[in-house]
Amino acid sequence: MYNQKNGKIKVSYTHISTFEKCPLLYKYRFIDKIPTPPSKHLSFGNSVHQALEYFQRQLLSGGIEIFSDTVENSILAFLEQSWKSEGFESQSEEEEWKEKARYALKYYFLPWIRSQMSSNYNIVAIEERFEIDIDKCILTGKIDRVDYRKENGSIYYRIVDFKTGEKVPRKMQNSEDTQLYIYTLGAEKIIQQKLSFPDLKPENLILEKIMYFYVIPNNEVENTIEESHRNFILSKINEQIDSLINATENNIYPPRTGRHCEWCDFRDICPAFKELFILSQEKPTNKQEILENLIDEWEKMVQDIAEKERQIYELMQEMGIYEFEYNGKIFKISN
What we know:
47% of the residues lie in helices and 20% in strands. The chain is built from nine helices and nine strands.
C-alpha cells in the first residue's frame, strides 16, 4: 500500500471523492502518480491561495494593519510573489488571469476580511494540515482557516474555505457532505492541539458554521452539519474507505464513466473512454440528458456574464465613477 503511517493507509477527502468518481482515475493519479499536463486553473488557484495564506499569516502576526493605506500594495505583492505561470497558453492570457486575481483580492477579498475583523472570532489556524487516526486508516487534510470564539464555557468554531472557481453552487450543499465532516474532525483536533482548554468537554466544542468564500465572484456560502446526521455521515465515510482499501489491497480499479470523462487527463490511456467517445457522438434523446446539457450551456453563459460585469466595474473604477446607466441598466459600485 502507498503512503502509509503505522501500517495504515493515509486517506484524504480528495482520495475518497476521486475514488467515488472513478476508481481507475484514483489509480492513475494517486497509485501510479502519472504526471498530468500543466493547468492554468490549478496555477491560478494555487497562486491566489498562497497569496491569501501569506497575507493572513502577516495579519495574524501583526505584520500588516488591515486598515492601513498600504494594505492593498501588500496583498498584491504577495500575489506577485506567489504567482505560478504554468499552463497559460500565452503571455496575454496569463496577464489577463493575473489581473482578474488582482482585482478580486483588492475589491472583493479585502472588503470581506475587513468586515470579518469586527467579529468576535479569533483566528487559530491558517492553511493547517491535520492527521486523524481512526480505526482503519489515517484521515488527512488541510483547512484554509479555523476561527473560534468562547461563550458560556463552550468553544464555538467556524471553518473558512476559500474558493477560486467562478461557479458558485445554485443551492447549499447537503449537510451530509463527506468533506464537511472530515473538516470538522480536523478543525476540532487543530483547536485542541493549539489552544489550552484542559477542562473542555467534547460536547462543548461546537461547530457554528462552514463559510465558503468564492473570491472571484465575491460570494459567500454558509453550511453546517446537523447533529442528527453525524452518525450517518460517519457510516458513509467508513463504507467509502472500506471500498478504497479493498481496491488497493486487491489492485482492482474498474473505470466508472460519466460526464467527468469529458475533461479527464487520462482519456488517452483509459480503456473505457474509446467506447464512451463513440457513444457520445450520438445526439441525446433522453430528456433529462438534454436538460443537463442546456443547464451546462446556461452556466457557461452565467460565467461569461460575470466576467463582463467584472470588466465593467473595473473600467468604472479606473474612470472614477461609481454609478453608470446605459440602455435602462444601472451599474453601481458600493463604497
